[in-house]
DNA sequence: CAGGCATGCCTG
DNA sequence: CAGGCATGCCTG
């Protein structure tokens, strides 16, 4: 018999903090790696080109069935199943030659204590993608695009994907790009139930200078419509800017209730969009910087 | 800009059947790998040495708190959290010099349609174990031991761990070995909610001949006591040896009730395996291409 | 697709 | 540790 002797046993062998990725687990707090993974700015900022983004909500599909994603305009939050092509629509003004600009998209953790960690794909879905003989180029990317032209970036572990701006199609006021998410928010060893933002930056190709920045919270889950409704319910008739009163955990943007509200009158759709965008942006920002206003730190429910 | 052109997009890129491991997913039905993963016998058989196994249930711990595992003798089912050292107790008679025998332990899928797949550790916990600088020897093993002497085997992907028999301690009638499980039954990309058995074989060191065989069903979960109670409740006042009769899903393996079923007669074990492989493969294929086909074997609750 | 369960994990 | 929620997924 060729046994191994051991007085220690293997008890301690892999006690792991399941709050985080196996990788994150072993990055010393102030190591160079941690520095690499510094947090990108996420404040919304239309900039001189009035850069905006929203999710296009397809009305009923042919078969009358709901699309596998749902968007809450009030909360600025997308709910989608994974591997679903979701149409994002960008708007911008006065860009001159659009070809000098591009849009970078990347997932970012929403909560302050995770925002400095790059959003990594979970080991299971990486494996699955690798096995499925497809190009292994994007395997590590949680946020991918189905756009015709694209470029995947991996700055350290901070993955992003870039698409070029194009001249708008005639008679359109937006530029549509399909993105899909390749992990669930719940993926163990990946996002691990942490909330994320999709961060979009309008950048100058040559210099990389950021000319505008927008975000949309994303929840990648199996029942987008259920979860959207659940969030709305949870938020009850929450007052504007009020904190969600979850008994457990969770954030989400409180939709406005209709009585006793301060309102801003707008003139048309476009204006409505712009205004709500700003409002929602502010709401989110507040929730982020003000602990009172929402979530607590680590994982938790979303 | 260094964009890539693609008319295809990445939509199909990693559509994956989440029913199974990424690895299992891409094993051609009749590949050598699939053959390697043939199913071990699991029928209980005390043999000439009256080989038996049970789980020792420690009474209340010092602090009066429950141990992180629970054992249902009636169901022959262990409920345990992962990474918990569970005391298994073996009994046997008339072995002569015990040093000529050893006990092999391995996890095996309980359900017929998975039994031929080796139980693999999930990618997340493999990663976690690798990162935690510990010996990488056991990283792939779901079933590990804390016994002083041990030997890890990887026959293809069929992992097992062997401990030598020893002379019984004076005044004892059992041989206690601590085992621990390093993945949850729910681990995605691993057991993936499939039920497992811990299979113990009493073997002759020299020849490898099996002299006895016992099994205990194991559920590795976060709330062993809750889940044990839930099973008992589900079973009503369950008969001995009965397994949980869930209203939802769970076992599958239709016991040979040959009434009104189309059956394919086969001649032997090997043929049985080959045929079920093909059938299951077809079921999976149909579910993939035809969402209607919700039914069929795979995971299920336990 | 709605209803509902199983189960990891968060809250007291 | 008990209570209970969130969420993937199974059943009609
Ligand atoms: Zn994933
Ligand atoms: Zn695992």
The CATH C-level name of the domain at 28-235 in chain A is Mainly Beta
Radius of gyration of chain A: 21 Å
- Bound ions, cofactors and other small molecules, one mention each: zinc ion
CATH topology of the domain at 28-235 in chain A: Immunoglobulin-like
Distance between the amino and carboxyl termini of chain A: 52 Å
Number of helices of chain A: 5
Largest sheet of chain A: 7 strands, mixed
Number of strands of chain A: 12
Keywords (chains A, B): Activator, Apoptosis, DNA-binding, Metal-binding, Nucleus, Transcription, Transcription regulation, Zinc
Region (Disordered) (chains A, B): 235-256, 281-302
GO biological process, one term (chains A, B): apoptotic process
Family (chains A, B): Belongs to the p53 family.
Outline the structure in words:
The structure is a homodimer of 302-residue chains. The termini of chain A are far apart. Mean pLDDT of chain A is 76; it is low at 5-16, 28-37, 237-263 and 287-300. Chain A has 302 residues and is of the alpha+beta class. The first copy, chain A, has 5 helices and 12 strands. In chain A, the strands form 2 sheets. Chain A has a 7-stranded mixed β-sheet. A 4-stranded antiparallel β-sheet of chain A has the order 2-5-10-7, with no helix packed on it. The longest helix of chain A is centred in the C-terminal third of the chain and has 21 residues, at 269-289. Chain A has a domain at 28-235: Immunoglobulin-like (Sandwich). The first copy, chain A, has helices at 22-25, 32-36, 123-131, 224-234, 269-289, and strands spanning 4-5, 52-55, 69-72, 77-80, 86-91, 101-109, 143-145, 149-155, 158-164, 175-181, 196-204, 210-220. The interface between A and B is large, with 55 and 55 residues. The complex binds zinc ion (ZN) (2 copies).
């Amino acid at each position: 018999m060729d046994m191994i002797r051991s007085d220690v046993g293997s008890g301690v062998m892999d006690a792991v903090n399941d709050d985080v990725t196996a990788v994150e687990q072993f990055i010393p707090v102030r190591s160079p790696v941690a520095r690499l993974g510094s947090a990108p700015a996420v404040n919304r900022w239309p900039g001189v080109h009035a850069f905006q983004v929203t999710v296009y909500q397809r009305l009923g599909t042919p078969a009358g069935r709901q699309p596998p994603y749902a968007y809450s305009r009030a909360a600025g939050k997308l709910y989608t199943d994974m591997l679903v092509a979701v149409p994002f629509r960008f708007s911008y003004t006065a860009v001159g030659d659009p070809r000098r600009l591009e849009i970078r998209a990347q997932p970012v953790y929403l909560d302050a204590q995770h925002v400095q960690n790059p959003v990594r794909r979970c080991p299971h879905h990486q494996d699955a993608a690798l096995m499925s003989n497809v190009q292994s180029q994007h395997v590590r990317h949680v946020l991918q695009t189905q756009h015709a032209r694209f470029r995947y970036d991996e700055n350290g572990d901070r993955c992003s994907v870039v698409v070029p701006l194009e001249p708008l199609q005639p008679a359109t006021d937006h530029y549509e790009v399909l993105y899909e998410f390749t992990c669930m928010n719940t993926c163990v060893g990946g996002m691990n139930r942490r909330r994320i933002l999709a961060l979009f930056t309008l950048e100058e190709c040559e210099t990389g200078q950021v000319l505008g920045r927008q975000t949309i919270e994303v929840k990648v889950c199996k029942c987008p419509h259920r979860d959207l409704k659940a969030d709305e319910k949870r938020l009850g008739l929450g007052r504007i800017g009020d904190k969600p009163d979850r008994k457990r955990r969770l954030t989400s943007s409180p939709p406005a209730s209709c009585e006793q509200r301060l309102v801003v009158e707008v003139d048309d759709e476009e204006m409505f969009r712009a205004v709500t965008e700003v409002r929602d942006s502010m709401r989110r920002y507040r929730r982020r910087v003000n602990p009172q206003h929402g979530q607590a730190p680590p994982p938790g429910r979303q």
